[in-house]
Design goal:
The chain is of the alpha/beta class and about 325 residues long. The protein has 10 helices and 12 strands. The strands form 5 sheets. It has a 4-stranded parallel sheet with strand order 3-4-5-10, sandwiched between helices.
């Protein structure tokens, strides 16, 4: 495992250990701790000679979640090409060139990116790393274009924000419609699929996320109310007044992308290929309840391992109160 202390990497290591696999993690030893019995190698893939610790050894499978400059992914892939049988790269649906249509499949165009680039934005970094891994490993490469990832360990804080907000109780601005489909993947289902599919040939490219409508905004937020046991009242509000107030979908109100929004396709991707390859997704209530249990245990969303901190997600309480008041006045 290249990394192994962040959200997806940590879940993948935990699942491999649960299966009784022999696991090696390679990272800088700056974040978290590896589970008992995991072999640790120390190195910084961005530094000169930073891959020295990988010079010896052979592995059946490597999983890589890198989202920095593609050059680092290319260097790692080349360093391991003769000593690793299969390479799994966790990419993102963000690689698709926009505008993208709802139902976008793996054959759709992606953003322009070079495999040896030394810099780029998130989409270009992921697309460039895909090329680096694919050009080095060929059919032995598995490219997993993940969608929205939720579950215990989340280090962005989208679902934790909703859980924390609903736990405070009172009237909660709930962005409608209540039956708006939500597409995501639980990190544990993603990790299990990466290991299952990574263990076989050929590889290929897959959108790894639930079917559109695996849950709805109503089901998600209702599950938050149940999990927290809070005395919260969900005040369902049409998208129009929310958007008119300058509220940003996805960032101000995490997870929510209303119909007609330019990024709605992010929750309407084609997933037939991944499901045919064995992807299964647990019920939303389980993801929500387990995330709440984890959040209560750790106390706060952890920093993102090895990455710059993002601006906090979630709507400011004063803005939420103003919107709720305006909505009440409109219906008075």
């Amino acid at each position: 495992m290249l990394g192994g202390t962040g959200f997806v990497g940590g879940a993948t290591v935990a699942e491999a250990v649960r299966r009784g696999w022999a696991v090696t993690v390679f990272n800088r030893w700056l974040h978290g701790a590896a589970p008992w019995g995991v072999h640790r190698l120390r190195g910084d893939r961005t530094a000169p000679d930073g891959l020295t610790a990988l010079a010896d050894g052979e592995w059946d499978l490597v999983v890589d979640t890198w989202d920095g400059a593609p050059r680092a992914a290319l260097d790692a892939a080349r360093a391991l090409a003769d000593r690793v049988d299969r390479y799994v790269y966790v990419s993102s649906g963000s690689v698709y060139a926009t505008p993208a249509a709802p139902g976008v499949g793996e054959e759709a165009p992606v953003v322009d990116a070079e495999p040896d680039a030394d810099d780029g934005d998130y989409a270009a970094n992921k697309a460039g790393a895909e090329r680096a891994v694919r050009e080095t490993f060929g059919e032995r490469a598995l490219i997993a274009r993940a969608g929205l990832i939720l579950g215990p360990g989340e280090d962005i804080g989208r679902l934790p924000w909703w859980l924390t907000r609903i736990a405070r109780g009172g009237d909660v601005l709930a962005p409608g419609p209540v039956d708006l489909p939500v597409q995501y993947v639980d990190v544990r289902d993603l990790a299990g699929w990466l290991l299952d599919r990574g263990a076989v040939r050929p590889g290929g490219t897959f959108n790894v996320v639930s079917r559109p409508g695996h849950a709805t905004m109503g089901e998600l937020l209702d599950a938050c109310v149940v999990a927290t046991g809070a005395g919260a009242r969900l005040c369902w509000t049409d998208p129009e007044p929310i958007l008119a107030a300058g509220v940003e979908p996805w960032n101000d109100l995490p997870i929510w992308i209303p119909a007609g929004h330019e990024y709605r396709w992010l929750q309407e991707r084609g997933v037939e290929r991944a499901y045919a390859a064995g992807l299964t997704c647990r019920p939303v209530a389980e993801t929500v309840a387990d995330t709440w249990s984890w959040l209560r245990e750790v106390g706060a969303v952890p920093p993102r391992a090895g990455r710059p901190q993002r601006a906090p997600v979630g709507l400011d309480p004063d803005r939420e109160s103003a919107l709720l008041s305006a909505t009440d006045a409109a219906h008075a």
